[in-house]
Amino acid sequence: MNMFKPVKATSIQEYIDSIAEPRKSEIKKIDAFIRKTVPKLKPVFLYNMLSYGKYHYKSQSGREGDWALISLASQKNYISVYVCALMGNKYLAETYKSKLPKASVGKSCIRFKKFEEIDFDVLKEILQKAEKSDWMGKV
Predict the structure, then answer these.
(1) At 18, is the pLDDT very low, low, confident or very high (cuts 50, 70, 90)?
(2) Average pLDDT, whole number, for the chain?
(3) Are 50 and 71 in contact (CB under 8 A)?
(4) CATH number for 124
(5) How much is the pTM?
(6) In this predicted structure, what is the pLDDT of residue 133?
(7) 76 Rama class: left (phi>0) / alpha (psi -120 to 50) / beta
(8) Is residue 6 domain-resident?
């Protein structure tokens, strides 16, 4: 088993089982944290990631599909948390970049190289705001 990038899984449990230690324990802790922080968001397995708050979207071009408000992935160099939410007209994750100096933050992705670098107080705030936000699927 690869410590960082699991094989293509078909369920949450299969995904977690495919990750080697110590990353497996870290992903399990973050998953439990997300579930506790935003318990109303139903956990699902989408696009080989742990996801929470599945919704169906349809873009202006007519493209449609299923996505999640929040997703968690173990990748080769990072633990990634995707937050597909807007606050007004800005991506929520991006607005927290200055509060997460040890993370690499993109528009909707927060990447941590090490579990110890995660600021769980800030992550909790982001997740709770995401749950109350304008989901990208509502746009």
Answers:
(1) very high
(2) 90
(3) yes
(4) 3.90.1150.200
(5) 0.88
(6) 84
(7) alpha
(8) no
